[in-house]
Amino acid sequence: MSAGGDMSGNGRGPAPGEAVPDATAGSPARADGSGGLRAMGSGVSPGGQSVPPGQHGDLARLAPTRARIAARVVGRERELELILAAVAAGRDLLLEGPPGTSKSTLLRAITAEWGVPLVFVEGNADLTPAKLIGHHNPARVLREDYSAANFVDGPLLEAMREGGFLYIEEFNRAPEDTLNTLLTAMAEREVAVPRVGRIAARPTFRVIATMNPFDNVGTTRLSTSVHDRLCRLSVTYQDAESERGIVALRAPLPPGEVPADLVAVLVADAVAVTRATREHPDVRQGSSVRGAIDLTLVAGELLALRGISSAGGAGGLRAGDTARQAYADTVYDAMVVALSGRIQLDETAETTPEMVLRQIWEDHFVLTPAAAAPG
Ligand SMILES: Nc1ncnc2c1ncn2[C@@H]1O[C@H](COP(=O)(O)OP(=O)(O)OP(=O)(O)O)[C@@H](O)[C@H]1O
Ligand SMILES: [Mg+2]
What we know:
binds adenosine-5'-triphosphate, single chain, 2 domains, two-stranded antiparallel ribbon, Rossmann fold, binds magnesium ion
């Protein structure tokens, strides 16, 4: 369970705790309950930072926010727009999608842009209502008896008090009574804590729940009453071109070590074989773009270590079968390291991750070498 800090550096907005240029982002709920939105007119503070929306209406102000976030995220224009519209409308949201499909990236960018905290909490069987809400410090209780002063906020209270987004990963792994606590907080926008009192949420408080639709171990089927209280957006893998863009962004290889034209070939190969893990008949869930990022980074180091990258870049690979074979073998070695732990085989499949990867490698580099040819 980690709070807030994870999002810094991702956006233009200040990190939580940092001074927010406009008072609205950090101010207590306004008497009119509007979060100051309408009063803010354009919705952009003098510092250029967007103002977080407290309630719906005035959507025009979202356009500049969307443009600024889009500049930091590869693709995902539609998802960004839909999420922005939902949270600006004051709604809580369920994001459904496999791992590595931009869910956290989008939410980090949005909360950073608005200068509101993003409070992460992992949904699992240990996430009791008490863990979500908080607890009295036992040592202080012994000395001073129960009081509001010795209460340690859990992530829910932290998000409510600070007007942050509570981001619950693997929502469907949380116990039912925890989900009920959350539903109450979502409906009432306040919680009552014994010996502390009622804690009201600031207008920008939102609940963002995520879950992996392929996940069926240790999960609860969410009841219709839970679904009925959340907006929902399903996200899937991005197309190959966007994934190449993400890998190029997240796996920069030092130009001194790997020539730029070889990097482009490597990124394309890494994305292609990673995507192939999602199509393989023996694989229940293949690797996300995280695998392609790691594959590119590991292969880049291996190519430099083995002196392959210095042999004339991608042009050198074209020149000789030996250089090309050495490159392809190196990509296979990196595939084993970067991808073998990331693919989940079908229970009935009589194979190993290494065998699956070998097949994918052969399909890509041996059977259809034209598709994989450099240049
Ligand atoms: N659209 C994107 N633009 C830029 N980087 C991205 C994009 N999508 C994913 N990434 C990168 O891919 C990695 C995984 O993305 P992210 O953490 O957003 O996935 P997620 O959907 O939150 O996954 P999980 O369900 O496992 O938490 C991160 O390193 C992120 O930087
Ligand atoms: Mg995530």
